[in-house]
Design goal:
This protein is an alpha/beta fold. It has twelve helices and seven strands. The chain has a seven-stranded parallel beta sheet, sandwiched between helices.
Length: about 325
């Protein structure tokens, strides 16, 4: 099989610590997450080795605009899960450092109370400029948590607003967190992010306008084509409403079985997009310029040039044997 430039070769066999991962060992879990996040030579074998062990964990996605208190609420929710004797994996997608490209770790710092708990494993991932609110490798890390036997995997997105509808593709239960005082027209909540919600939360409910914001969200939710969703009020710092939130998430989870197929679909889509981006970057500039010149001169239209560029790209992709 021809290997594309820059692509990691798959190892011949799974790493010897893979059984430890499947048994839930923390050291093996950490190594596996590092492998799939950094796309090392072991990553392909790890992902292949865990495929038959997926579908146990309930994946809960927390999303919403910055400033709504998502990290504090996630931390309180994790504490409630531990009181219920459930093991938890947390994927906290942080903004990327402009210097190193790594995660700034703000969310992980805010969840520091769980650092010594063996039933909680928190991993921060850098968004690396990804506009959908998720890291490109988030779906793979979720799979690793799932295979290790975690009961619940919590995913907190970076907090970019409406573009975070991507969480709908990999989370079984989607919680959209809002702050009080959204304004009369609820401008902070756009149709896209409202549509993905299984549960709507007004956090910081001790602040003014929390009741009004909850009523506004309930009214908007009632207008959804597929029916309204629960609207809850929480105060994460005081623990108010967190048990009720955990109950609501569990209720939705019982109706919706964990779906590892959705995460695998996202993984395949990302790999295809990555390959196409690399292929486009490697096309001879002269050939692309010739197509652009043909459009500018009127000798070709956009659709015809697009088809020609696609055929050129596909002809230069490595062929599988």
């Amino acid at each position: 099989m021809q290997k594309q430039a820059g692509q990691k070769a798959a190892p011949d066999s799974a790493p010897d610590w893979l059984p430890g991962l499947l048994a839930g060992e923390r050291a093996a879990l950490a190594r596996a997450i590092t492998a799939v996040e950094n796309e090392t030579d072991e990553a392909a074998a790890v992902l292949q080795g865990i495929r038959s062990r997926l579908g146990h964990a309930l994946v809960v996605g927390f999303t919403g605009a910055p400033g709504a208190g998502k990290s504090t609420l996630v931390s309180a929710y994790v504490a409630e899960l531990r009181r219920r004797d459930l093991s938890v994996g947390v994927v906290a997608v942080d903004p990327s450092s402009p210097l190193t490209g790594g995660a700034i770790l703000g969310d992980r710092i805010r969840m520091g109370q769980h650092a010594g708990d063996p039933g909680v494993f928190i991993r921060s991932l850098a968004s690396r400029g990804h506009l959908g609110g998720l890291s490109r490798t988030a779906a793979r890390v979720i799979d690793v948590f799932d295979a290790s036997g975690r009961d619940v995997v919590v995913v907190e997105t970076v907090g970019t607003g409406q573009s975070e509808v991507e969480i709908a593709e990999i989370a079984d239960v989607r919680v959209v967190v809002n702050a009080p005082g959204l304004g009369d027209d609820v401008q902070a909540i756009k149709a896209g992010i409202l549509e993905i919600a299984d549960i709507l939360v007004v956090n910081k409910s001790d602040l003014p306008f929390a009741e009004r914001s909850a009523r506004q969200l309930a009214a908007m939710s009632a207008q959804r084509g597929h029916g309204p969703v629960p609207v809850l009020q929480t105060s994460a710092t005081a623990g108010k409403g967190v048990p009720e939130l955990a109950d609501a998430i569990a209720a939705v989870g019982k109706r919706k079985r964990p779906d590892p197929r959705a995460r695998t679909r996202r993984l395949l889509q990302n790999l295809v997009l990555d390959r196409l981006r690399r292929g486009l970057a490697e096309l001879p500039p002269a050939e692309v310029d010739a197509l652009a010149d043909a459009v500018l001169s009127g000798r070709s239209d956009i659709d015809s040039a697009l088809l020609s560029l696609t055929e050129l790209l596909v002809s230069r992709l490595p062929q599988q044997k």
